[in-house]
Amino acid sequence: MYPLFIVLNFRRWRNIKELQINEQIREREVRLIDVDGGQVGVVPIKKAIDMAYDKKLDLVKVAPNAKPPVCRIMDYGKYKYEMAKKEKEAKKNQKVINVKEIRLSPSIEDHDLNVKARQAIGFLKDGDKVKVSVRFRGREMGHKDMGREVLGKFTEIVSEVGAVDKKPRMEGRNMVMFLVPKTE
Predict the structure, then answer these.
(1) Where do the Translation initiation factor 3 C-terminal domain residues begin and end (predicted)?
(2) Mean model confidence pLDDT for the chain
(3) For the chain, how long is the longest CA-to-CA vector?
(4) What is the reported pTM?
(5) For helices 76-92 and 4-13, angle between their N-to-C axes, nearest 10 degrees
(6) Which of 80, 95, 96, 124 is deepest in the core (most CB within 10 A)?
């Protein structure tokens, strides 16, 4: 079994693409970039690895598709740590938008509509999208205008906090509309 710190480090860095380092590089010649970013030129792989070991660093293949492949002398552990840190920072700044659904019927009463609208207002204030659907059953399919009226009333009630993202349209037996939070 592997020691715990190796397993934890693997989990932290598994999303970072693995690059070939040192003896994993199989090409005969590589274009070498020094620690400072200066180009050394095209050198045999053995000489490049020796130069990296002399500086107590790693030889990392950074552009495998180039002809010849581009390798850089760097501290690979430090590089992976920096990449993991950047990835974590990007994930932290990401905003996840959820879609909440509210179902109505074409013959909904005003009080029930207001209750559903208050729910939608709460979702919109939290920054979520709201999918409002009116479900038609049986003979109600002949009265799609009633569903459109219900969605119109619903839009008026939530107009202070939300705006229509996608206008009402039919999807099978449901009339669907999407609302998004208003940005001030």
Answers:
(1) 97-182
(2) 84
(3) 83
(4) 0.52
(5) 60
(6) 124
Q: Which residues pair with 70 in a beta bridge?
A: 31, 63
Q: Are residues 120 and 72 in the same domain?
A: no
Determine the straight-line distance between the first and last CA of the chain, rounded to whole angstroms.
55
CA atoms within 13 A on the CB side of 156: 9
Convert the pLDDT of each residue in 28-80 to its tens digit. 888 888 888 888 888 888 888 888 888 888 888 888 888 888 888 888 888 88
Type of residue found at 39: Q
- The verdict on 25 and 59 lying in the same domain is yes
Which of 48, 73, 92 is a domain's end point? 92
Look up residue 76 and give its two tokens.
Answer: 């690979």
136 in the same domain as 80: no
User: Residues 81, 86, 89, 91: is their CA dihedral positive or negative?
Assistant: negative
Contacts of 133 (CB under 8 A, 6+ apart): 101, 102, 103, 104, 171, 174, 175, 176, 177
Place of tokens 């659907």: 133
Q: What residues make up the domain containing 65?
A: 4-92
Residue 42, SS3 per DSSP: strand
Low-confidence ranges of the chain (pLDDT < 50): 1-8, 10-16
Residue 76, CA distances (Å) to 21, 123, 127, 160 in order: 8, 45, 40, 53
**DSSP at 21:** B
